[in-house]
């Protein structure tokens, strides 16, 4: 009995996301002081703005008494473990599943490292247009979001086998 190769090698993508995320956050802390001061990249659209978030997306639960740190640590660990398990059961050639899962795992662990190290996540990418402003985010958030969108899109628009069409 032979086993088919699984998609665990796609965790290389997670490692790349983690490395880029941590390097970019280190750069942001060094270069974007003081906190909250915008540094225009594309005026009227994109700033680098150093911010810290002890909550989740959109500062959800940021005003908690500290318990949210461990809640989000546990959540990231559970989600990452489930997704790694999913990769282990996914055929290696199934890049439409492996690519998004690798991005999500990398993003989750990138933010997990921040929570364990500093009890908050470092954010610095600020997109805005006129009065509209998106909350400041980071590369780990990009990995999670792009991975989730790809997972949904590939799931919705997956090809049907030719013999199933009548």
TrEMBL record:
Enzyme Commission designation:
3.4.23.36
- Pathway, per UniProt? Protein modification; lipoprotein biosynthesis (signal peptide cleavage)
Any keyword Aminoacyl-tRNA synthetase?
no
Mark the transmembrane ranges: 69-89, 134-158
Annotated Pfam families: Peptidase_A8
> Membrane topology per the record?
Multi-pass membrane protein
| Entry keyword Cell membrane | yes
Q: What class of enzyme is it?
A: hydrolase
Q: Where in the cell is it found?
A: Cell membrane
Q: Which residues are catalytic?
A: 123, 141
Q: Which InterPro entries match?
A: Peptidase_A8
Q: Which UniProt keywords apply?
A: Aspartyl protease, Cell membrane, Hydrolase, Lipoprotein, Membrane, Protease, Transmembrane, Transmembrane helix
Catalyzes what?
Release of signal peptides from bacterial membrane prolipoproteins. Hydrolyzes -Xaa-Yaa-Zaa-|-(S,diacylglyceryl)Cys-, in which Xaa is hydrophobic (preferably Leu), and Yaa (Ala or Ser) and Zaa (Gly or Ala) have small, neutral side chains
Q: What does this protein do?
A: This protein specifically catalyzes the removal of signal peptides from prolipoproteins.
To which protein family does this belong?
Belongs to the peptidase A8 family.
Read off the HAMAP family from this record: LspA (MF_00161)
Indicate what this protein is called per its UniProt record: Lipoprotein signal peptidase
Taxonomic lineage of the native organism: Bacteria, Pseudomonadati, Pseudomonadota, Gammaproteobacteria, Lysobacterales
């Amino acid at each position: 009995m032979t086993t088919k190769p699984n998609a665990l090698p796609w965790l290389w993508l997670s490692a790349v996301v983690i490395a880029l995320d941590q390097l970019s956050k280190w750069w942001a802390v060094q270069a974007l002081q003081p906190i909250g001061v915008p540094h225009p990249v594309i005026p009227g659209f994109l700033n680098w703005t150093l911010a810290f978030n002890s909550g989740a997306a959109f500062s959800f639960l940021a005003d908690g008494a500290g318990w949210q740190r461990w809640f989000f640590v546990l959540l990231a660990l559970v989600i990452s473990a489930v997704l790694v398990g999913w990769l282990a059961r996914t055929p290696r050639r199934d890049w439409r599943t492996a690519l998004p899962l690798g991005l999500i795992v990398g993003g989750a662990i990138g933010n997990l490292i921040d929570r364990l190290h500093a009890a908050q996540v470092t954010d610095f990418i600020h997109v805005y247009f006129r009065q509209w402003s998106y909350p400041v985010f980071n590369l780990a958030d990009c990995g999670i979001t792009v991975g989730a969108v790809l997972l949904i899109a590939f799931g919705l628009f997956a090809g049907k086998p030719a013999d199933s069409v009548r």
